[in-house]
Amino acid sequence: MKLDDTDRPLQLGEGRISGYLSIAFGTLSVLAVLCFMFPDYLTTPSLRVGYDLVLMRKLLAAGMVFSAGFGVLTFVLNRQKRLGALGILLTVLAAYLGGSSVEVGPRYDAPGFIGLDWFILDLLASAALFTALEKTVAHRRDQPILRSDFWHDGRYFIVNHLAIGIFLFMSVKAMPSLFSWTVNAGLQEWFGSLPGVVQFVAILVTADLMEYATHRAMHEVPALWRFHAVHHSVERMDWMAGSRLHFLEPLVTRTVVMLPAFVLGASDTPLLCYIVWAGFQAGLVHSNFGLEFGPLKYLVATPLFHHWHHSSEKEAIDTNYAAHLPMIDRLFGTYHMPRDRWPKKYGVAGAPLPKGMLRQFLYPFQRRQPPPTV
Ligand SMILES: [Zn+2]
Ligand SMILES: [Zn+2]
């Protein structure tokens, strides 16, 4: 069903902004109530232990007020009533399930979990931060926030975030059994005694070396490229576009990238700092944020650096594989970042990928389809 009447950029006073905000806050309120009802299945264990329940209930109440308020505003503006009605309906559903006074559900011994809470927190934080950055200093000023394919990539955001619990669960289970032979007690004791900042930098460098090798292999081995081509099918870059990944790709890359931290026996705090930084940088480098960061752009991966990686222009093919440190690409001869010039075109050359998330999931397994050439 198409809720919106138009593909035009959002404008104030039309009721579309308030309608979408009402739906977004309504959906998040329903999901938050479900997290309260089924904590063991829907929340991330490492986050769960740190929650202030009183604060969480206040945030949920605020979410419901926003959803209802924006829904009513949509009606007042007398446009896009379907958007407003859906937002209000979601608020009513959240209230019906218990709202902000919902009881915390019984504890089960769940065998795995879906990180719904991580999804909600990450979506709220990313949407607020990156939308503000993209509005303040846009690289492409004519590109609306809700550009074409935004909802397509939004579905990837949902699937890849909800699957993170399964990924983490599998890699936590698989790593000790598969790689226990790599563990050296002396090495881990030494590494664990290092200051947190040193550990963080060591995790960043080793993770990015692994990322470089895996990423380059995905470009150079044809069978792997078919999976990674899904990520490169993005034609308009923004913070949401980075979520377009074949779901098997993060399963492999996250395990490989975290392997050095596992072998070194990194402490919890530097490890958590790395995970938060990696998540932020993944959003940033894909975003439509036009700041070039001066000399800092040679030290850390920025939008300019990764936008060139996504370019379909000949000069940029198979360059800029690093996720954090452009220095690694310099070291291996794959660095490409012209001064003050951004790529003009993004995407894959040759045969285009099929449209739709399910078709893109199946695409690498369909041998008869010709692969894209970039
Ligand atoms: Zn790539
Ligand atoms: Zn990318």
TrEMBL record:
Record bears the keyword Transmembrane: yes
Protein EC: 1.-.-.-
Transmembrane regions: 20-39, 59-76, 83-102, 114-133, 154-170
Localisation: Endomembrane system
Enzyme's top EC category: oxidoreductase
Main location: membrane
InterPro entries membership: Fatty_acid_hydroxylase, Sterol_desaturase/TMEM195
A Gene Ontology molecular function term of the record: oxidoreductase activity
Entry keyword Transport: no
Fatty acid hydroxylase domain sequence ranges: 200-334
Keyword annotations of the record: Lipid metabolism, Membrane, Oxidoreductase, Transmembrane, Transmembrane helix
UniProt membrane topology term: Multi-pass membrane protein
The name this protein goes by in its record: Sterol desaturase family protein
